Amino acid sequence: MKHPDQYRGEETIVLGLAKSGVQVAKVLHERGALVTVNDKKDREQCPEASELESLGISVICGGHPDGLIHEGVKLVVKNPGIPYSAAPVQKALELGIEIVTEVEVAYHLCKAPIIGITGSNGKTTTTTWVGKMLEAAGMNPIVAGNIGTPLCQAAQEASEDNWMVVELSSFQLKGTQDFRPKVGCLLNVAETHLDYHGDMRDYVDSKAKLFANQEASDTAVLNWDDPYCRELVPYMKGMILPFSMTEELLQGVFVRPSYVPDVEDNLKRTIIYRDYTESETVISEVDSIGLPGRFNVENALAAIAIAIAAGADPGVLADTLASFRGVEHRLEYVEDKNGASYYNNSKATNAKATTMALVSFKQPIVLIAGGLDRGSDYMELIPILEGRVKALVALGETKDKLASVAKLAGLKTVVTVDNEGSAASVLQKAVQEAAALAEEGDVVLLSPACASWDMFKSYEERGRIFKEAVHNL
């Protein structure tokens, strides 16, 4: 797309009245574009409409009217969650009109170098962690996008002295054209969002757009243990800085195990950064990381690599590794009840995320799972359920699928909760069922392996209701 300044006097359509849509509409309007914002929700569900109309921006709620998209429209900026199968998007494609997401608009506005972080799991934790690391290094980070300030707003406020640290979804990246981060990171790839993308190829291709415009002076941070990430190596134009839990890399960030005599488990694991001259820096001991779970070690390795690629001194990162305590709804400790520990991992919206949460605990687990049915069969959970999960409490659209998988895994205790009543009451009942099954020393874990939209507005709402239910036991 052109720079937003170049749409003065031209008709632009913004699809979706979420935070990003409101900010994009304001940006384009301030630059003289003729902006219409459209949302299929009814007017009473669009509180932002009045503010935009007071600025002189046209707002249409309650559906997508015929004629909204026509040959005179020069740009469509769509909410990332709106599928490409939606009627106005299809019409824009038919007419050859540019379709982008907020990320593309923000990129053209932003004076600060950008760090883009994507992946199926761990995006928010890693993005937040990078922000903390750059802050400790005195590099003036702005954490924006899906977390924090809307990206277009932050982009306008940023200067060349800042670093913009941005969490990016496949939905957002699919709608980019010129977007070029100084540092791009792909954390991992799991089978998810196939209802939106149609197949894994489109999903991976959308993630890979993070690197499409990088040049030799840019850096691509890749998970060397993930085959999808390694597939992309031949297409990379920038420098590659890998990270690995399992392999000692020629260059990159990795874990080195070493044996220590007269210690109970005889094993010490150290995080090493090896630069392009093969000079090594010891960053930290793995046991010093402030977050539990193997997947958080991977997130830590990624965050270290990103911070180093941005220019942070490796020697200042250890304190942030130790002090960071994570993000709400991501393996978040809630409290102990009757000797059992309760954890909120509502952000686990796919089977891989739930798998990573389950391997974080050595204690027996009572798992609460289930939610929106996106067509997955969840068979990949069988190996991790065996011997690790003592009971499953299933709810939502996928409760019967998950119950069947649990029985195939040999679980003797499987409870399905009827989806009757309000979403809050169903989840509260699930928590009560789990509490009745939990014994002293157990973990009760909400890790749904599914999106929340069958019952809740968001995974955040689901997590908050879970925590309230635990507190009220």
TrEMBL record:
The keyword Ribonucleoprotein does not apply. Residues 117-307 form the Mur ligase central domain. ATP binds at G119, S120, N121, G122, K123, T124, T125. It comes from the Bacteria. GO terms for cellular component: cytoplasm. Its main location: cytoplasm. The keyword Transcription regulation does not apply. Keywords: ATP-binding, Cell cycle, Cell division, Cell shape, Cell wall biogenesis/degradation, Cytoplasm, Ligase, Nucleotide-binding, Peptidoglycan synthesis. It catalyses: UDP-N-acetyl-alpha-D-muramoyl-L-alanine + D-glutamate + ATP = UDP-N-acetyl-alpha-D-muramoyl-L-alanyl-D-glutamate + ADP + phosphate + H(+). It is found in: Cytoplasm. Pathway: Cell wall biogenesis; peptidoglycan biosynthesis. SUPFAM superfamilies: MurCD N-terminal domain, MurD-like peptide ligases, catalytic domain, MurD-like peptide ligases, peptide-binding domain. This is UDP-N-acetylmuramoylalanine--D-glutamate ligase. Its EC number is 6.3.2.9. It holds the Pfam family Mur_ligase_M. One of its GO terms (molecular function) is UDP-N-acetylmuramoylalanine-D-glutamate ligase activity. Residues 329-450 form the Mur ligase C-terminal domain. The gene is murD. One of its GO terms (biological process) is peptidoglycan biosynthetic process. Cell wall formation. Catalyzes the addition of glutamate to the nucleotide precursor UDP-N-acetylmuramoyl-L-alanine (UMA). Belongs to the MurCDEF family. Transmembrane segments: none annotated.
